[in-house]
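Continuing the series of single-chain predictions for the mutant panel. This is the parent chain; the variants come on the following pages.
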Amino acid sequence: MSPKYRLILTSFVLSTLLMIAKFIAYYQTYSSAILTDALESIINVVASGFAFYAVYLASLPKDLNHPYGHGKIEFFSAGLEGVLITLASIFIIFHAVQGFVTPQPLNDLNIGLIIISSGAIINYYLGYVIEKEGEKQNSPTLIADGKHLKLDAQSGLILILAIGLIILTKATWIDGLASIAFAVFMGISGIKIIRKSIGGLMDETNDATLHTIVDLIKNNQKNEWIDVHNLRIQEYGSDLHIDCHLTLPNYWVLEKVHDTVHEFEEVLSKEFDASVEFFIHADPCLPECCSYCKIEDCPIRWYPQTKVIEWNKVNLSLNQKHFIEKI
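Parent structure:
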């Protein structure tokens, strides 16, 4: 079993056990704050279950119906988790307001405090491990699940503080106030997760990935790479698809063009652990390219080199050669 499957399965099992423990704590205490945490645990269980299925789908090979693979299901999985978090936050606020209108007596808060504290410690550690593995494998599903568990642990601190204050002060209104604060914190985090997953589904450029690729091109630049433009990056879960136009000398034979394109691909792929697919379009150089071409012994040069173009994420991404003024 791969590390992805092990972590998601562990998350699912622990989330289920913690959910049961938190509901037991609620029925022992009738605390709105503890019910809030228990309801949030339902989301952990549902999200972990769907995340396991998403990781399975994302690992399937490409086929005729999915020529780019199945990796985008991971963005959908992360988005679903964000939606569930947001909906739960709305329900929690509604329940807390009801608690202000018709308050219920609180019982055995010490038991609830022990269960919530234990759950916070377990969730934070597990969330930290899952998020780090997700960043390592560039997996939106693992990152979202890890962030969710860490969020659950962080919000648990609010509840621990609230329950502690209730025990010390006997002010039961703190219970509802803590639930609302927890719900607002959850809702903001859920919206952020939704926003990021929508960006992934719409092929929004990942600035960190683009910056890495631009640095690779600049730091390994060859004189024969006359021009690079129309650089585009698509993420399919943990897999990358990179395409661009690479301008090469027009007098080269096809075999040399092929070898240079392959070398260019190797330069771009060496920093990524994920599977990287390329589509490099080779353009022949034009006389207008001479002004920034660095090939010293070019047999067909029309004009001397007069400028050096500093490649960056803007001009590498434009769908036009560098001798054309930016429109």
